[in-house]
User: Fold this.
Amino acid sequence: MKSEKSLLGIGILTSITASLCCIMPILSIIAGTSGVLATFSWLEPFRPYLIGISVIALGFVWYQKLRSQKEIDCECALNKRPKFTQSKVFLGIITLFAACMLAFPYYSSIFYTHTNTEVLAADKADLKTTVFKIGGMTCANCEKHVHQEVQKLSGIVDLKVSYKGENAIIVFDKTKTNKTVIEQAIKEAGYAITDKTDH
Assistant:
């Protein structure tokens, strides 16, 4: 049935799109193209609508699939086995895939490495604290993505990233790194620096 395939396509597409802003930073880390793929934050406000479309589209396909079986009253129609793409198993796989995509922001943290920054010896006179205002962070995964990229730099002593506060408070050893290098790491992660202040 053509309308069923269309609805399945819509369900899959909207479920992937709903979590694209969280999926792309992970893919960018894997591909090594951070700045290019992490720019889907503009989709975040549309996430609830995309989730709704996914649920409605897949729900309607399930409704049609279950209703059409009740309407079969001919013995010959029961003996004909449907194609795999028209089966309940395939629909179940698609529904499970869509659910995994929609839930991606809740379990994506498993893809980020959890390493601790280690500074052996830092003179207090060499420590500098800067607050970077960051645009484009929309969820906790954006936070983790920025954290991971900045944490790779040498000389980072302390790092607190907040997507709610739209900032990163970074304490660094100015003999080992500087604001420009940190700003570049944040930009390469795909986020914009809107302001920076020293403390």
Remarks:
- The CA atoms of residues 131 and 169 lie 4 Å apart.
- Strands lie at 127-135, 156-162, 167-173, 192-198.
